[in-house]
From TrEMBL:
Family in the record: Belongs to the eukaryotic/archaeal RNase P protein component 4 family.
PANTHER family: RIBONUCLEASE P PROTEIN SUBUNIT P21, RIBONUCLEASE P SUBUNIT P21
Region annotated Disordered, chain positions: 33-68
Keyword match Metal-binding: yes
GO molecular function, one term: metal ion binding
GO cellular component, one term: nucleolar ribonuclease P complex
Alphabetical list of Pfam families matching this protein: Rpr2
Record's keyword terms, sorted: Metal-binding, tRNA processing, Zinc
Domain of life: Eukaryota
Compositionally biased intervals (Basic and acidic residues): 54-65
Name of protein: Uncharacterized protein
One of the protein's GO biological processes: tRNA processing
């Protein structure tokens, strides 16, 4: 008998998810650097006659790139596709990637561009250092994501120790001991 295949199951789906995330990140960064944001256009480039061909027709092949809104919308569409692929194939995304995507509008959260993040402490005067919460606010939909800063993450259900069975066993043992002690020998 041959051994079963080792390695990653659904490798094409993982590759597709990785591609969609990388493409969405690239488009979000391209929107940040977009036309006119950090580069200054020379006066000759803004002249409408520059794009004219010698026969008097406008050359439409020379484009300055897509607008910021278009690249943001395309980035959001790619992230929506990423979410649908992971839901259909039941593949878990790492928490680091989940934190960079808005749950409501599927915008890639880039600090200072599409979101702002602050650390809040709602305890009295901020006295409890373990109560710090990182709040990320999306500029697109104005929703907030809140993450505890110093708290340890709970293990997933299959990896947790079964506490309930241990507690039930100790309660049953104490009740049996109590019943045995209350019984008097004949």
């Amino acid at each position: 008998m041959a051994k079963g295949k080792t390695g990653v199951h659904n490798r094409p789906m993982y590759s597709r998810i990785s591609f969609l995330y990388q493409a969405a990140t690239y488009l979000a960064e391209a929107a940040k650097v977009g036309p006119g944001s950090t580069q200054t256009n020379p006066p000759a480039a803004t002249d409408p006659d520059v794009d004219m061909e010698p026969d008097g027709h406008r050359d439409n092949t020379k484009r300055d790139g897509c607008s910021t809104a278009t690249t943001q919308a395309l980035s959001r569409k790619l992230l929506t596709d990423l979410r649908s692929v992971t839901l259909k194939t039941q593949i878990r995304i790492t928490p680091d990637i989940k934190r960079t995507i808005c749950k409501h509008c599927d915008t890639l959260l880039v600090e200072g561009q599409t979101c702002t993040s602050t650390v809040e402490n709602a305890s009295k005067g901020g006295r409890k250092p373990w109560a710090d919460v990182l709040t990320i606010k999306c500029h697109t939909c104005s929703r907030q994501k809140r993450f505890p800063v110093n708290a340890q993450r709970q293990k997933r259900r299959p990896h947790r120790a079964p506490k309930l069975q241990k507690e039930v066993a100790t309660v049953e043992a104490t009740t049996i001991d109590a019943q045995l002690q209350t019984q008097t020998p004949p």
